[in-house]
Amino acid sequence: MRFGPLIDQLIESLQCLPGVGPKSAQRMTLHLLERDRRGGEALARALDGALARVGRCSLCRNLSEDTLCPLCASERRDRGLLCVVETPADVLAVEQAGGYQGLYFVLLGRLSPLDGIGPAEIGLERLASRVREEGIRELILATNPTVEGEATAYYITEMLRGSGVAVSRIAHGVPLGGELEYVDGGTLQHAFSGRRPL
Ligand SMILES: [Zn+2]
């Protein structure tokens, strides 16, 4: 204990944030207490409100303040198109990129048997019933190009085989503006296997 229990506790608590170690937590704490008490109050209120009111959307499992998130509630989205992603951050990334007008399904994880994460933990039953009951015509698998992400995409493809829905996987490959000689072998392989006729 260097400053007192309340200050020490604040320094300790801030370290739950990603990328915040003891040094930055200490800097943040002293900044709030020394120079920005108003900012600290606003932060405390925002945190309190968000934790109390933000839950999950009942349709897509994304973070939401209401039963349905704004995307699922929107009249302007294409309801026959469903994009499967791993995290709420992935939804933001696709939305910010623009161009996609369908709905989402957020797995909140990926299959990882060693960590005890199976189909039930990532809501695959709910996904299957959505595809069956909601007239989904195309499912776009946008899980990450990691071993678990690929395995998850493969599992979902097999699960929906014969259900009549068209399943596609987003392409992975050479970044825009990149040069072939600097691209790693795995990415280049993906780019070749995902080639399309022109
Ligand atoms: Zn939703």
Which features would summarize this protein structure in a list?
6 strands; binds zinc ion; two-stranded antiparallel ribbon; 13% strand; single chain; 198 residues
Structure description:
The protein is α/β, with parallel strands linked by helices and 198 residues long. The protein has 8 helices and 6 strands. Strands 4-3-5-6 form a 4-stranded parallel β-sheet. A two-stranded antiparallel sheet has the order 1-2. β5 (138-141), α7 and β6 form a beta-alpha-beta unit. The mean pLDDT is 93. Zinc ion binds at residues 57, 59-60, 62, 64, 68-69, 71-72.
Short description:
This protein is of the alpha/beta class and 198 residues long. It is 43% helix and 13% strand. The chain has helices spanning 5-14, 22-34, 37-53, 70-73, 88-97, 124-133, 147-159, 185-193; strands spanning 55-56, 63-64, 78-85, 102-106, 138-141, 166-169.
